[in-house]
Every structure is written in C-alpha cells, then in structure tokens.
Amino acid sequence: MAIARKIEAFGVMPPLLIAAFLITALLYASVGFGGGSTYNALLVLSGADYRVMPLIALVCNMIVVCGGIWRFARTGDLSARRLLPFLAASVPAAWIGGRTPISETFFVGVLGGALLLSGIRLTFQKRESEPVPRHDSTRRIHPILSTSLGGAIGLLSGLVGIGGGIFLAPVLYFMRWGTPRQIAAASSLFILVNSFSGLAGQLMKLQDMALLSEAAPYWSLPIAVLIGGQAGSWLASYKLKPDLIRRLTALLILYVAARLLWRWTGMI
Description:
Strand content: under 5%
Order of helices and strands: HHHHHHHHHHH
Distance between the termini: 23 Å
Low-confidence stretches: 1-10, 129-137
Number of strands: 0
Radius of gyration: 17 Å
Structural class: mainly alpha
Number of helices: 11
Largest sheet: none
C-alpha cells in the first residue's frame, strides 16, 4: 500500500518518509541547495497526489536554502546584484509555471530528468579549492541572454515545483560565471526567490482546484527539513569535507532519479 494512504488521522507521516526528508535536507544544505526535486521524487515514490507535491517541496526548499544563504552571505560569496538579470524574468515565469496545471506523466518525466542532471553535475563538479582565473570570477553575461535563461528556468521550475538551482548551476558553470562557492551562493538565492514565486502560483492553483487541504497532513516534513538543513549547514562549515558530502549527495540523487525514470517509462 502506498505511503500516502497510511497517513494517520492526525496527519503523522510514516517515520521512513520523515527520515528521508531529513537526510535529503542535510545533504543538500551542505552543498548549498534546497532539495526540492528530491522531495518531489520521494513523494512520488511514496504514492502521494502529484498535484500537491510541488507545494510541499517548495515550502521545504525555502526552509533549507535560508541557512545556506545566511552562510554564503557571511563568507562574502553571495552577490545578489550580479544575479538580478536572471531573476528579472524567472520570478514571474515561476509564478506562471506554478499556476499552470500539468499531467502526471509530464511532472514525473521532467522531475526525473532534473534529478539525473543534478546527479551528473554533482558527480563531475570541480572541487571548491580549485582556483578559477580572476577574470572569470567577474565575467559579464549579456543581459538578454541572462534574462532569457532565467525566464526559461523559472517557468520549468514553477511547473514541477522546484527552485531551479539544479538548472541554473550547470549554466553558470558552463559560462564560468564565478567560483564554485559563488555559483552555489547564487543558486541558493535563485532557489529561494523562485520557490516563493512558484509557491504563490501553486497555492492559487490548488485553491482553484479545491485541493489545498490535501497538503495539510504533511506538516511534519517541513519540520524534518528544518532540522536536517541546520545540521547540513553546520557540517559543511565545520566538519565533513565538501567533496565527501558532494559524492554522497550525488549518489542519493542518482539513485532516486533512476527509480523515478523507471517509473516514468511505465507511464508513457
């Protein structure tokens, strides 16, 4: 029986799902991301209604990345001004995507592809200690290109209920936008802003569909990611080596992506 059908009268989630959310938040927070795609994937595999998944994932996303943004701001790696061209179009696009109804097949397919992309990127990501040429750390990207890319990422992210950092980070790496830490900081801010915008769209869509109350039983999952996110930020700052955390996160993502894409092949 699907996990979603085992929810008790008081809305208490099964311990396994709570633990999975906590561990996911811990790993993602340690590398500067929110984990929205993996939260959605875990909910898909648990048998939850796909229409309320983005709402839950976006709330969890926002909780986790706040810790990362605070950490990157303290170290001076966060530059909101340089990210503005990407945010200019992504914010309204994320809201539009959140408001747009989609099929379950599209949702699972895009989510599985996003996870696969994220896992591959983390696997081959450069080490944080690897130097980046000085001119690359302040490289300028044409505003039209930045705005177009931001809008496309925001729309896709809003549709499936993620922050978009897993799409933005590879683009910034390809463009040599900055150092690994600067890109992680930019992705964290991008995730927070677009999660908020996408959440607004999702709330309006679910209200129109009379499904908003269906998300209420999942109240324990945001608490789990709050704990996991704080633990992940602490570990990243003081204890575990970044490369070890990155490899563990990549393994988790690739495993979930494989399961999700296998499920998707049975839907098409």
